[in-house]
Amino acid sequence: MPELYFQDHPGPQEHAPLVLLHGLFGSGANWRGIARRLSAGRRVLVMDMRNHGRSFNDSTMTYPQMARDVLDTLDGQGIDHADLLGHSMGGKVAMAAALDNPGRVNRLIVVDIAPVIYTHTHMPLIEAMMSLDASSLGSRAEADEKLGSSIRDQMTRGFLLQSLEKNADEGYRWRLNLEALQRGMDDLVGFPEFPDKTFDGPVLFVYGSDSEYVQHEHRPGISRYFPNAGYAAVEDAGHWVHADQPGLLIEQVEKFLKDND
Question: Which tens digit of pLDDT belongs to each residue from 192-222?
């Protein structure tokens, strides 16, 4: 497979690089501001996952595959080991990478997700985007209006529309491989089994106080894989912690990294 597209934010070299991994329907661009601030202390690489952003498309997207994408991209940069920070889907990718290749990961930060199978589905969002004839759109505002009949929440529409790209010759298009996301939804809401595997390094689970993605009942499953896991709640934040409270998230990340240098 080709390497993932990434944005490189150079920083001091005394620490291992920090890799940021976005969630479903997102891209590295969602993390650009946070990456710039974190790069004051270390090099930060912000990757686009397969079938997202400017990375390659593929027909499948399981978590072991996506974890391999990340490590292959680090190999291409000559990076032997790194710290990983992943949000939602990206958090599951980061966990899979740490469990399958613990020698490549120093520290792990998981934002608002747990290594569990969730019962919800994002299929209605995919179907709404697929029903939109993007190439015929005259403006992003028109896309927002048309999506509004099936996606009521304005913040969700705004987030999805960040992946709508205008091409001078062909009009608008999604920078998402919607067909692959549709096929892979069962894998994306799940989490693979890693029998007898653990990651024994420092781990921080950061979650929004208003989110339901990380529950107390998930903690035994988390401890099974990550015996040194700690937890931090970000007040007045939902699932998109980095959008709701970027400053508080950065504080938690920097404190964790400093405490575990």
Answer: 999 999 999 999 999 999 999 999 999 999 9
Residue of 88, 163, 211, 242 marked active site = 88
Q: Return the C-alpha torsion angle 123, 61, 213, 162, nearest 10.
A: -70
Q: Tell me the C-alpha distance between 154 and 184, whole Å.
A: 26
pTM of this structure: 0.96
Query: Any catalytic annotation for residue 88?
Result: yes
171 or 28, which is more confident: 28
Tell whether 160 and 37 lie within a shared domain.
Answer: no
Q: Domain range for residue 168? A: 123-182
82 plus 173 within the same structural domain: no
Q: Count of domains in the chain?
A: 2
The catalytic residue among 127, 179, 212, 235 is 179
Q: Which residue is catalytic, options 9, 22, 87, 239? A: 239
pLDDT grade, residue 43 (50/70/90)?
very high
| Distance (Å, whole) CA 241 – CA 214 | 12
- 197 with 76, same domain: the answer is yes
